[in-house]
TrEMBL record:
It holds the Pfam family Glyco_hydro_18. InterPro entries: Chitinase-like, GH, Glyco_hydro18_cat. This is GH18 domain-containing protein. The lineage of its organism: Eukaryota, Viridiplantae, Streptophyta, Embryophyta, Tracheophyta. It comes from the Eukaryota. Residues 42-315 form the GH18 domain.
């Protein structure tokens, strides 16, 4: 996620009241004549564990009526040293291993049958250095990645893989072929049941993910698009336009909308994010919501996680 470096019951009540009161007027600004397909509750995804803030799964409110994924952040193919170096697909765990253990995963999955847990690969930095995709060769990177990722998946009893590289020392076709072979193997051999990618609107990033999508999009279940990487102060009409643009770029994909709880850019919940989501939901386009991240949400008692899930579970 790029540049990753919100109080009690009354506030939650006030936020929800404002949203519910203003929602109809805002929706009418964007009428649609499209046929509205039947929709199912969307998926909710929460990235967790990247910032070492002692957050664990049980802190996050979970609605049992939607599909819920935690994505552990991150596993990275770099050495865990003061000056990290790339390891050509040999992934190590970099999330908060004290508070996000295999036993924690077993407990949350036993308590909530709708919860799955995956891990995100790559991310922005590792120990202050860019976490760059830097394969020595396609064959060797894929071989190492399959071995190391399968080992982590089995140890932690994971269900999903998310691709979140943001820096590249390889051309788009090499990236596409490496990730294609990895995802194909993991799915074909039932190592994971769910895959996603996490691009954002930067030309040097987007070109790699579009090369992957256009050739091998059938291997990818969700596009966790980082809408919070757009400019701070994004408006409702702008977010809806960005959504349409990325729906065209990742044609046929299930694009998830997103916001950050670390005061990053994009359209914030306070400025109309849920209104935009309601418009998309009425149009049958809201496939899900993801949040970066649980670590940052803890200070505000996960108010937006609850609102996001309530919206996904609600009738249109």
């Amino acid at each position: 996620m790029p540049r990753k470096t919100t109080p009690g019951f009354q506030l939650k009540h006030n936020l929800l009241s404002v949203w519910m009161l203003t929602r109809p007027a805002l929706i009418n600004i964007f009428p649609t004549t499209e046929a509205i397909p039947a929709v199912c509750p969307g998926v909710f995804i929460e990235y967790i564990g990247a910032e070492g803030k002692n957050v664990t799964f049980s802190y996050v409110p979970i609605n049992p009526n939607i599909e819920f994924y935690f994505l552990l952040s991150f596993a990275i193919d770099y050495t865990n040293t003061k000056s990290p170096e790339p390891t050509n697909g040999n992934f190590l765990v970099y999330w908060d291993t004290d508070n996000l253990t295999p036993s924690h995963i077993s407990s949350i999955k036993a308590k909530y049958k709708n919860v799955k847990v995956g891990m995100s690969l790559g991310g922005d930095t590792v120990n202050g250095k860019n976490a760059t995709f830097a394969p020595t060769s396609i064959t060797s990177w894929v071989r190492n990645a399959i071995y190391s990722i399968t080992k982590i998946v089995k140890e932690y009893n994971l269900d999903a893989i998310d691709i979140d590289y943001e820096h590249f020392n390889a051309d788009p076709d090499t990236f596409a072929e490496c990730i294609r072979r990895l995802l194909y193997y993991l799915k074909q051999n039932n190592v994971v049941c769910y895959t996603s990618i996490a691009p954002y609107a930067d030309d040097s990033v987007q070109v790699h993910y579009l090369a992957l999508w256009r050739k091998y999009g059938h291997l990818i279940d969700y596009v966790n698009f980082q809408f919070y990487a757009y400019e701070k102060g994004t408006t409702i009409p702008q977010l809806l336009q960005y959504f349409e643009t990325q729906s065209c770029n990742f044609k046929g994909g299930k694009i998830l909308v997103s916001f950050g709880t670390n005061n990053i850019g994009g359209l914030s919940p306070k400025n109309g994010f849920f209104d935009a989501c309601t418009i998309l939901k009425r149009q049958g386009k809201l496939h899900g919501i993801f949040i970066w991240s649980a670590d940052d949400s803890m200070k505000d008692h996960f108010q937006y996680e609850k609102l996001s899930q309530d919206l996904l579970a609600s009738a249109v």
